[in-house]
Specification:
With 294 residues, the protein is of the alpha+beta class. The protein is built from eight helices and twelve strands. It has a nine-stranded mixed β-sheet, sandwiched between helices. A three-stranded antiparallel β-sheet has the order 10-12-11. Helix 7 crosses helix 8. The relative contact order is 0.12.
Length: 294
């Protein structure tokens, strides 16, 4: 691929050294690197208001102020003067790879259908590339179907490891109802043809129902070239309407992912399936190892 991958080529117009504008679906949004304590208070508010995280789990503005010293940064998105999204990250290293660890992103519900989450991740990735990182890593709840389609399909990240109850059942209890906070660690390589294509263009994801014929993960099915794990279509609604069913999904998904990872699979895609969704798993050998993407 000869087309350059820069902020300008994907539509971010430079306003000043830490501010960009972009038109998304005929609406103009401003994206800014947040640095001052007053600006970083946005990240505190979004944690509380959007993700319902409570003290002492909220990451404070004073803590975020040191992230640039690690190579990380905090991004905010605005429509006019209204704050609509925030994402913060810090620099990390796991031999042999320098990576940006994206700790948190929240998008206001009223703009989630406008692709702002994708644009925030795209800006984050391109800034990380410019600053010498080779991948972005972050953890996700594997039961969040919409996030899975964004992260695995549109961005091209891959789920590489799984942790039970990573933050404790008390974390964001207003959102999760006290369920175990199991998390899937994603790695998003920044210097591969696969990731460049998805950053430059509108990637066509797996169509709805396209994974319906793929076998579900089980002790008998491991070894197949593709497997799936069925997850709820909307975990937030399920937590509120049928907590026991939500918890069953959590525990069954945990069992299946751990079985698949033990057999050498990564999580690589997602698609809707009626009122549910399916996560796609493929052999880890298909994907680049850290250090192989230079």
């Amino acid at each position: 691929m000869n087309e350059p991958l820069t902020l300008a080529t994907v539509g971010f117009e430079l306003v000043d050294d830490r501010t960009w504008q972009k038109t998304v679906h005929d609406r103009v949004f401003t994206f800014r690197e947040l640095r001052t304590i007053d600006e970083l208070m946005l990240a505190e508010r979004m944690q509380r208001d959007v993700m319902m995280i409570e003290a002492p789990d909220v990451i404070s503005a004073s803590f975020l102020a040191f992230m640039p010293d690690t190579g990380g940064f905090t991004l905010g998105a605005f429509e006019g003067d209204t704050e609509i999204a925030v994402a913060f990250s810090y620099g990390g290293f796991q031999y042999p790879e320098p990576f940006l660890y994206s700790d948190f992103m929240a998008v206001a519900p009223e703009v989630r259908s406008h692709g702002i989450g994708f644009e925030m991740k795209r800006l984050q990735a391109l800034l990380a590339r410019e600053r010498g990182f080779r991948s972005v890593r972050w953890t996700v709840d594997p039961l969040r179907a919409a996030n899975a389609r964004l992260n695995l399909e549109r961005l091209g990240a891959v789920g590489i490891s799984y942790t039970r109850n990573k933050y404790g059942a008390h974390f964001a209890a207003g959102l999760y109802g006290g369920m175990p906070t199991d998390r899937l660690l994603l790695r998003w390589p920044l210097r591969t043809e696969r990731s460049a294509e998805r950053l430059l263009r509108d990637y066509v994801p797996h169509p709805d129902g396209s994974l319906d014929g793929v076998e579900e993960v089980s002790a008998k099915s491991v070894g197949a070239p593709q497997l799936v794990i069925t997850i709820p279509g909307d975990i937030d609604i399920l937590v509120k309407t049928d907590f026991d069913a939500a918890l069953r999904y959590r525990l069954e998904t945990r069992e299946k992912i751990e079985l698949a990872f033990g057999a050498g699979y990564f999580v690589s895609g997602a698609a809707r399936s009626g009122q549910e969704s399916r996560l796609l798993l493929e052999p880890a050998a298909m994907f680049e190892e850290p250090g192989a993407d230079e």
